[in-house]
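Input set for joint prediction.
Command: fold jointly, output tokens.
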Amino acid sequence: MTRHVHLRFAMAFGGHTIRPMSSRITKAVIPAAGLGTRFLPATKAIPKEMLPVVDRPAIQYVVEEAVEAGLSDVLMITGRNKTTLENHFDRVAEIEALLEARGETEKLDRVRAATNLADVHYLRQGDPLGLGHAVLRAYQHVGHEPFAVLLGDDIMAGGSLLSRMIEVHEATGASVVALQEVDPAMISSYGVAAYDASSSVEDGVPGAGPDTIQITGLVEKPALEDAPSNYAVIGRYLLRPEVFGVLEQTKPGAGGEIQLTDALQVLAANREELGGVVGVVYRGRRFDTGNKLDYIKAIVELAVDDPKLGPALSPWLKQFAASIGE
Ligand code: G1P
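tokens >
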């Protein structure tokens, strides 16, 4: 009850302080409580976030991305079966001692990198009521500060999307979501943005710079004919804390789940009181590792990029591609 009142207070109070949210953004929330059913039986005993991509579990790429953008306080919202996740970001004294004794310093550095990367906290989601519910669980940890949400399935290769989103938040005071133009055939798998087309995407929202759009509404997983645009929300968000108060009031939506998209729709529709939502259009590479085909592509592309593996893999890959023809 106390928490309930407090959230409402935060929301009402936030209504008068739209612009300078001067506190530097330091916190990232990573929802990682999904069951990974698309990867069964591989994910029967290990979480999907721990599936390896080249030489690291998928989740490590996401934590590295947060840290690169200056967000070293990471809260993972986990579920059952996630102890391996916690173990991965913790020390393993025996392995470190062994590598040290053998003088295998390069391996030792790589093992330690995962441990020293960030200050990682864990919270269990409890009931799996949807992404919006997972984000609401972060309230106690985040408090009244803007924060980032990174979905554990998405790996963004190259570029500095998150830093750009922080810049846009600082310039506009709005919540910010990452968008990608997707094939219409895929649109119903995403949250989709309606936007104000009065300024061109190239020029962007005044003050926010190129490749930004003012979002006027958001809809979760629309049928193709109902999709307001081809701009899909991809797994990176920078949210004003008012989202917690809105999420508390958000009823289950698409799929019977409490949807983050539905709360963002409220923020977008209440620009004066809640700061609005700006979209940053991302044109870099993104892999949805929750999808088998994209997971395989991520491994191949990132291995080709790897300075040690790439030179040996690329010629083999060309030969193999030629052998299977068109
Ligand atoms: C979630 C969000 C959706 C977003 C997508 C990006 O959906 O609910 O709005 O577009 O992530 O990957 P999910 O993929 O969990 O079904």
